[in-house]
């Protein structure tokens, strides 16, 4: 459960089992008191600090493309859509009130188009 996420909304989302393993190790080592990720003096990270950490990680990974923390949210939704996840589930995971908001992720990608099979391929002719 994400509490007070984007738009101060609570929502249920996915947590990768691989990420969960890393979080378990992190919790044992750092033992945060209130927030999952706390600043050096305790308390919540500011939006600016989160963005700085993200930009440092992006640089270490050698990623040159422009991106922000919000890009991760957009990528998450886009990847789910390209894997065939129903837009209604994506809407719930992102906490959108309106399906119109979620529809921005339905942009056409050449990767997704390349995976589409013609229904005519199923014919025995």
Question: Mind explaining what this structure looks like?
Answer:
With 125 residues, this protein is mainly α. The protein has one domain (6-114): Orthogonal Bundle (hpI Integrase, Chain A). Helix content is 47%, strand content 0%. It is built from six helices and no strands. It has helices at 17-30, 47-60, 69-82, 87-94, 99-102, 110-114. The radius of gyration is 19 Å and the shape is elongated. It starts with 16 loop residues before the first helix and ends in an 11-residue tail after the last helix.
List keywords for this structure.
mainly alpha, 47% helix, elongated
Summary of the model, kept short:
With 125 residues, the chain is mainly α. The protein has 6 helices and no strands.
- Which whole number gives the mean pLDDT? 86
Quaternary state reads single chain
CATH topology: hpI Integrase, Chain A
Largest sheet: none
* Cα Rg: 19 Å
**Span from first to last CA?**
51 Å
Tally of contiguous helical segments: 6
CATH architecture group name: Orthogonal Bundle
**CATH classification, class level:** Mainly Alpha
Number of domains: 1
- Helix content bin: 40-55%
Q: Count every beta strand, where a strand is a DSSP E run of 2 or more residues.
A: 0
Strand portion, in percent? under 5%
Give helix and strand order, one letter per element, not per position: HHHHHH
> Can you tell me the CATH superfamily?
Intergrase catalytic core
How does the helix and strand content classify structurally?
A: mainly alpha
Shape, principal axes of CA atoms: elongated
Low-confidence stretches: none
